[in-house]
Amino acid sequence: PDYYVQAGTEDAQRIYYRLQQLPAYIHSATHVFIGTRTCDIFSSMMVNAWTSASNCSRIYNNSFSSARFAEALPLSHSKNLELDEGKGTLWNSMYLYWLLLDKLENSDEPTLRLKHDAPSQMDRLKPALHSRNERMAGTGQEAWNHACDMCCWVQKGDDGSTRLALRSVVVDGITIGRPCCSSHDCKKPLESVKDRFCAKHDVLNQCCEVDCVAQVEPGFRTCADSGHRALETYLCEANKAMFQLQLRLKRNGLAQPGEHDVNSDSDVEVDDEIDSEVCDGKPGRGNKTVKARFGRRRTHNEETCVGSCGVMLGRATFYGSEAPNGVREFLKGLFPTKASVPGVIWHDNNCKIQAMLKNDDDDTDRNHFAACAMPVDVFHFKSKHKETDEFCNQNCNALLWDELKTEDGNWRFNSSAAEQSNVWFGGFQALVREMEATRYDFFLDEMVKLRNRILIRELEKKGKAPYSIPRADLLS
């Protein structure tokens, strides 16, 4: 094994050996070892092709599992070397692999310690995943202090000294979501991804009929009222009889949604106005209707901050909305000192953020961003903002800053980098939509880290001179 057990205490721990490099195989579960080279291939498949764990398992079983290796095993050993697609073996292996790799790369926390007597491997890994998530929040991404010729412009004086260093980042949101508490803007994690409320707000787990405050009955999403129970029964029957819904669409002349619509799942939160007397077949206008909300709530979006070169500096989960105040708090957490604030922050709603900063009675935040240009990105300024909006024209037009244009009249920075990066980021929606919160954050942070490394290597090949600004200089 690659660990030893520190016995003699009630809270026995698995302490993984400190090595100069990862071992060839890691002990990922009882009687399960997996090669670190195989894990590296799976990581590359996920970050480059959005390959799910089940598809990684299928590819491995069809391509890599070796019958010749099985024949060399002792008779007492299992000859089944295939990855089980349904028991989470691969996910647990990948999370352990990423944790060991993280410890190897970060000398501040060189030893991985896990609880030995945990109920499951998922529970065993969770505290370590959570600890890494806390470290990655804000300034934690290894490329947070990245700069290169595409995202940073340095103006030199006649004597060769630096007169101006302008760093450009773009902020944007993308609707990747996971299950969360149905209480608006609650950030507490769910005990299970199938729950509707966290432990703190479980008292709100009321009947799904909007106007009813009665508690739900065990095994149901409605109370004991027969009329409300009929709503849930009707919904289940309707979901099972999809052809009836298709007929209704045709009768109303509506186009049928595509079968691959990610929002077509009944899990998505919707307001269904259903006839309360669902058994008599009468038209809706003759009966009283009630509104019921059966789906779980999901996080609103992921907010990303991307350098104009495409390297992602950080991300955060937004729960209730992508409000200007939320974006401001995200930026303050990502750039906690005035020295770390980039010279240019592009955002499609910077006019609202600037108005909020100007009207804030406390000038702390206003001073924090005082030296930062905050224009609306060029695409949204032309297509999404009114020409009659005087405040936006006077404060967010990129032409207000001469430094944002080159001598030949072109834009110095790519102001659409976040939207372009989010095309890649959005590919993970199907993989993470049912993930538990801790694993969700860890996985996305890991994918961002791996892709940043790929992009930085490409920038080197293109001669864009990528480098890291000393963190001490930015955080002082």
TrEMBL record:
Residues 1-64 form the CxC5 like cysteine cluster associated with KDZ domain. Pfam families: CxC5, CxC6. Residues 170-233 form the CxC6 like cysteine cluster associated with KDZ domain. It comes from the Eukaryota. This is CxC6 like cysteine cluster associated with KDZ domain-containing protein. It comes from Ephemerocybe angulata.
